[in-house]
Amino acid sequence: MKQYFHSVRLDKEQCKGCTNCIKRCPTEAIRVRDGKARIIEELCVDCGECIRTCPNHAKIAVEDFLDKLKDFKHKIALPAPSFYGQFDSKHTLDEVLEALLMIGFDDVFEVALAAEVVTRGINNYLQENQNLKPLISQACPAVVGLIQVRFPLLLEHIIPIDSPMNMAAMYAKRNALSRGYAPEEVGTFFITPCPGKITAIRQPAAKNHVYVDGAISISTIYGQVLKHIKDLKGNRKLQKASGLGIGWGSSGGEIKAVKHGTKLAVDGIHNVINVLEQVEKGELRDIAYLECQACQGGCIGGSLVAKNPFLARVRIDQLVNKGTNPQLEHLLETVDLSHCLLKGGLQPRKVRNLDENLAEALVKMEKLERTLEELPGLDCSSCGCPNCRALAEDIVKGLALETDCVFKLRKQVEILAEEVLKLARKVPPAMGQRN
Of 112, 129, 166, 172, which has the fewest Cβ atoms less than 10 A away? Predict the structure, then answer.
């Protein structure tokens, strides 16, 4: 089985064995065994739902920290569009970006600026490829992972356009190299709202070059920026992106920038699942483009942000309403969009089947259905599985017992108690009759 990198990890000392995480996991990747949660690696898509819902803070995201900047001579910050939504309107974006320079970065390159380049790439691709509908955005790595695990037949629907994050890193590095830095001297760090982006950097879904060298969460950077921003006047003109790119930070911002065809935005991974099920049935062929965001509200609702997503959306909307920059639009027209196209294809995740042998798998499938009929169907998760079907599957695979179901266990205890009572009433012949 392939080894996977996951930014979402379990802190066993903090885990109390509750079932909050297994109920919310969209790919049924979590089980509770021996009083502790366990993550099934090939099913986890690092969406961060378990981080968001765990009351004991037992799910954490593995990220880089500012001390990693010491590994590079020239350090470039790549702030996500959602990063801007963390700050009140009293702070200009120039001040926000300058504060990043104050905490150890040598330069900044806005991911929102790269999003505008990617938008043009998407528009071109939609114009030239109208046969397959709907095409699905590749911007959210958790959604890409979800499709690999649960909807592999829809992989061909994912648009082969690179993410703004990786495009920003590519442009940032090219700029640095043109100024005389050696490749090994330049480090690019994405300021991320979610663990999914961290995983996409360490282990990308497609076999394409990753230009990002590290990822630091918005929640980690936020406090550092606040320390410095109060003393800045925004004299350095660092902000270049317009409202169209910044809008990518919240749900609906991407399709607002895309011009061609009928578009649909859906956020929240369970809502995404419902829509993808419809796509799988062929029910959304009148939609040209799907923007799917795993987090409620889009990236501003990521599990690694600092600000309330509703407040962050107000700020993002304010920035979007400022409109476009005519000079920037003219500049973007000269950009070579061929760099946006991804060359490597996406492959489905290989998950554990009931059996590698087809004949044995069919036998086990019949056993699974029989086992499921005998379970109560309450999906209470007391067994440590998300639902009765998952328990039945684990039983067939030899990973669980029927008595893991508390209702089956209670029935077994009742039967055993009756047998013990009957046995207690019996008297061996040598002891004679009981009074």
Answer: 129
Residues 262/287, Cβ–Cβ less than 8 Å: yes
> DSSP 3-state assignment of 296?
coil
What pLDDT score was predicted for residue 237? 87
- Buried residues in 356-367 as b, exposed as e (16+ CB within 10 A): eeeeeeeebeee
Q: What angle do CA 218, 183, 76 make, to 5 degrees?
A: 25
Helix extents (H) in 258-376: 269-280, 309-320, 326-332, 358-374
80: helix, strand or coil: coil
316 contacts: CB under 8 Å, gap ≥ 6: 81, 82, 84, 85, 246, 247, 249, 250, 253, 300
259 secondary structure, DSSP code: -
Report d(CA 55, CA 59) in Å as an integer. Answer: 9
Checking if the pLDDT of 331 tops 60, the result is: no
Residue ranges and CATH numbers for the domains of the chain are 8-61 (3.30.70.20), 66-340 (no CATH), 358-425 (1.10.15.40)
CA distance 81 to 115: 9
d(CA 153, CA 328): 39
DSSP 181-218: --GGGEEEEEEESSHHHHHHHHS-SSS------EEEEH
Return the DSSP state at 153. G
Predicted TM-score (pTM) of the model is: 0.90
- Mapped onto helix, strand or coil, the DSSP state of residue 395 is helix
Q: CA 239, 245, 249, 252: dihedral to nearest 10 degrees?
A: 150
Given a cut of 60, whether residue 254 has pLDDT beyond it is yes
Q: Quick: pLDDT tens for 347-396.
A: 898 887 888 888 999 999 999 999 999 999 999 999 999 999 999 999 99
353 DSSP 8-state letter: P
Cis amide prior to 134 (ω within 30 degrees): yes
In degrees and rounded to multiples of 5, residue 390 shows phi and psi of: -65, -40
**Spatial separation of the C-alpha atoms in residues 233 and 223, rounded to whole Å:** 18
**Concatenated DSSP letters of 33-71:** ETTEEEE-TTT-----HHHHH-TT--EEE----GGGGGG
Query: Which tens digit of pLDDT belongs to each residue from 293-328?
Result: 999 999 999 999 999 999 999 999 999 987 666 555
Asked if 99 and 225 touch (Cβ cutoff 8 Å), the reply is yes
Burial of 12 (0-12, 13-18, 19+ CB in 10 A): exposed
